[in-house]
């Protein structure tokens, strides 16, 4: 990897011949579980020269944090593939950071550069950008991501927790109802008796049984 006179468009990245994947051993509810390989972004910018981090990662991180569309375009208009690169040490992409800033236009711009597969990328904890959205309970942002790829609602973290589960753990009532309805009431192929019971347990602990539909499901677990 090299730079020339600090210009970001002159950076040459080493080609990646296979997808980055790592395994993390985890347990959940005191039971050992086998985690799937993580679907990580490209790590070139983190593993390369320090200049790449300073001239690309730092400005893209700052732009993602505050939703500075013009600053991001200075780099991404020349290097749109950078939307699938990790830009911080936790292996998060611009999308991971931007969804927490509530900058909807900025996220929609990133969506225009990304494929359906790109938004399924996870950080080192196995958390997709959608998973983070579920955790904070931003339903409006969730709609933007689901419009691009509905499959993100079923991608677990490294401990096997569904986005619906983490929304329930954090007491995000509106998000829980949205994900519950969009998951066919936890009846799809991704749902098991175990992960369904985890969600219902979290709902009980966080007093989320105001929804009649969730209360009905409790009777069948």
UniProtKB/TrEMBL annotation:
Signal peptide boundaries: none
SUPFAM superfamilies cross-referenced by the UniProt entry: Ankyrin repeat
Transmembrane region(s): none
UniProt cross-references to SMART domains, sorted A to Z: ANK
Descriptive protein name: Ankyrin repeat-containing protein
